[in-house]
């Protein structure tokens, strides 16, 4: 086998052991790590076509895999004005005014990343934005991507003049007089106004997705678990790979929506294993509830507004049936479940599905996404059922506060807000914890996500930590992006570690992520990113 890549003068950090290996060099060929040794013996393996990189003491570790991301739909969502940095309504209005000034006559304005905390005590409604959007058709995605704010002109063009009923847990929010406020909760309601807005062309989405993926590679990501196969998403990935513009290895889970009948589930099963060299359909994404910020989560007791009392599925029993169908077919599931009742129902469904296991074949590895507030008895069930906890620590860091003055905490009340994002409790209880960004909900740089898992503070470090007792250790955070994503994918024998025979998916850092300070981790330079032995990002000075 020819040698494709040689890395010299390196510190090799295996996230499995957490130790620096007694080697200084690595060789890869055929997409796998073929040799670990000293510089002299590994350099001798290089041929005329080998990429040889002297790392001058940089740290090589297993490639980072984001456990929950939306690269294609997120690329489309983020083609509008970025509101994610706006901390109050003054900043939101200023950003929108600048975008309106640059808008072509009659054009639609799209925005994303709008944080409900920016509204303070004002309602999340188009009226709170003042006259800045008068006469302008505008759709502003709230940060959670489960809701949007539509301007009066957008509502008019969509023919929305009052409430409507939806089979899913969705709502056109109206005031006491039955007039829409502009706030649309969950997909079915959002789609009413999105249907009349112009959409980017496939070429534009493809170009933007390629741009995003390049930035992800530059941030050190070698892979991602993409909850992202809606519409033309799979075709976009196939086209990017054909054009040589797919720098990440993507494991894709198409959505199963409420009301899915047997035929729809069979179609999802038939999709499994399809894909290309760097992307593959592997799993199904489901939703058990919405979000706490919107009052659409499913809680065991109502939130402080009397909301968050229902599942996303009109009949949760059908969800349980679908989990059983997918389990019998060997299909792993990833279910969005934020509230305590939603998480409990998912675990119940997995337990019922597993009751019929014969032991003749490996059972699929199911997972729960988000898990924002759960009681102790739920925490203990994850390990017992072999269910992975897929969590996004930066959601806690960026959108909640230690003093519980944020929208999320005020809705939950003191008791439930105090058990927020229980990463450490789940880990200590024996659950596999996978970390991710949920981009574009939160930024994707993996070092920043790991830093948040360790210090539990916003990225600007301006506030005290929220739930510091839930912080992960440096090694736990690293494993959440390496070893554990490999395990939940059933790839622990070939991925997630530095070992001969494992995939040559590698991230090279200027410093050791296990010894750098928690508050400095996000700024550590990424020098080289490698997928299958091929560099996908390389710092200019290397």
Written description of the protein model:
The two termini are 26 Å apart. The relative contact order is 0.14. 30% of the residues lie in helices and 21% in strands. The mean pLDDT is 95. The radius of gyration is 23 Å and the shape is globular. The longest helix is centred in the middle third of the chain and has 17 residues, at 202-218. The protein is an alpha/beta fold and 542 residues long. A six-stranded mixed sheet has the order 3-2-7-24-25-26, covered by helices on one side.
Concise description?
This protein is of the alpha/beta class and 542 residues long. Helix content is 30%, strand content 21%. A 6-stranded mixed β-sheet has the order 3-2-7-24-25-26, with helices on one face. It has a 6-stranded mixed β-sheet with strand order 9-10-11-12-14-13, with helices on both faces.
What is the topological layout?
Layout: E1 5-8, E2 11-14, E3 19-20, E4 25-29, E5 32-37, H1 39-43, E6 51-54, E7 59-62, E8 64-69, H2 71-77, E9 81-82, H3 89-101, E10 109-114, E11 138-142, E12 147-150, H4 152-158, E13 171-174, E14 180-185, H5 186-194, H6 202-218, E15 221-226, H7 233-242, E16 249-252, E17 255-256, H8 262-271, E18 279-281, E19 284-287, H9 316-328, E20 333-337, H10 340-354, E21 367-370, H11 376-385, E22 388-391, H12 393-399, H13 407-412, H14 414-417, H15 423-428, E23 433-435, H16 446-455, H17 474-479, H18 483-488, E24 506-509, E25 526-531, E26 534-538
Parallel strand pairs: 1-6, 2-7, 8-15, 9-10, 10-11, 15-16, 16-18, 17-19, 19-20, 20-21, 21-22, 22-23
Antiparallel strand pairs: 1-4, 2-3, 4-5, 7-24, 11-12, 12-14, 13-14, 24-25, 25-26
Helix pairs in contact: 2-6, 6-7, 9-10, 10-11, 12-16
């Amino acid at each position: 086998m020819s040698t494709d890549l040689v890395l010299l003068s390196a510190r090799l950090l295996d996230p499995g052991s957490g130790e620096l290996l007694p080697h200084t060099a690595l060789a890869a060929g055929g997409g796998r790590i073929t040799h670990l040794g000293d510089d002299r013996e590994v350099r001798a393996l290089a041929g005329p076509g080998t990429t040889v990189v002297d790392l001058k003491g940089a740290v090589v570790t297993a490639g980072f895999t984001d456990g929950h991301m939306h690269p294609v739909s997120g690329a489309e969502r983020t083609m509008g004005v970025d509101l994610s940095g706006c901390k109050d309504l003054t900043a939101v209005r200023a950003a929108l005014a600048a975008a309106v000034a640059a808008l072509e006559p009659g054009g639609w304005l799209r925005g994303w990343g709008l944080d409900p905390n920016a509204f303070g005590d004002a309602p999340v409604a188009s009226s709170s934005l003042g006259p800045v959007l008068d006469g302008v058709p505008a759709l502003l995605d709230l940060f959670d991507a489960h809701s949007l704010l539509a301007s009066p002109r957008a509502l008019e063009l969509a023919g929305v003049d009052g409430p409507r009923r939806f089979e899913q847990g969705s709502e056109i929010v109206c005031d006491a007089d039955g007039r829409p406020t502009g706030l649309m909760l969950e997909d079915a309601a959002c789609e009413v106004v999105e249907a009349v807005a112009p959409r980017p062309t496939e070429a534009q989405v493809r170009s933007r997705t390629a741009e995003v993926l390049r930035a992800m590679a530059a941030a050190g990501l070698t892979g991602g678990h993409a909850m992202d196969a809606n519409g033309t998403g799979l075709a976009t990935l196939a086209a990017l790979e054909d054009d040589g513009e797919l720098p990440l290895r993507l494991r894709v889970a198409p959505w199963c929506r409420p009301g899915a009948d047997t035929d729809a589930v069979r179609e999802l099963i038939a999709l499994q294993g399809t894909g290309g060299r760097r992307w593959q359909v592997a799993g199904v994404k489901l939703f058990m509830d919405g979000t706490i910020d919107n009052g659409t989560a499913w809680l065991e007791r109502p939130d402080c507004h009397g909301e968050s009392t229902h599942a996303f599925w009109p009949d949760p029993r059908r969800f349980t049936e679908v989990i059983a169908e997918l389990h019998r077919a060997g299909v792993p599931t990833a279910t969005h479940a934020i509230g305590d009742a939603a998480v409990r129902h998912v675990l119940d469904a997995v337990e019922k599905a597993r009751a019929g296991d014969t032991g003749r074949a490996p059972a699929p590895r199911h997972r729960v996404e988000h898990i924002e507030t759960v009681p102790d008895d739920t925490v203990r069930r994850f390990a017992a059922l072999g269910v992975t906890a897929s969590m996004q620590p930066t959601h806690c860091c960026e959108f909640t506060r230690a003093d519980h003055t944020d929208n999320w905490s005020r809705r939950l009340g003191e008791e439930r807000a105090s058990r927020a994002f229980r990463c450490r409790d789940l880990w200590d209880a024996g659950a596999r914890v996978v970390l991710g960004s949920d981009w574009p909900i939160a930024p994707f740089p993996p070092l920043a996500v790991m830093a948040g898992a360790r210090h539990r503070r916003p990225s600007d470090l301006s506030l005290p930590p929220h739930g510091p007792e839930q912080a992960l250790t440096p090694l736990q955070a690293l494993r959440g992006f390496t070893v554990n994503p490999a395990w939940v994918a059933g790839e622990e024998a070939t991925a997630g570690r530095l070992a001969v025979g494992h995939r040559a998916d590698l991230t090279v850092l200027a410093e050791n992520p296990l010894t750098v300070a928690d508050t400095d981790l996000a700024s550590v330079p990424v020098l080289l990113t490698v997928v299958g032995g091929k560099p996908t990002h390389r710092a200019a000075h290397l």
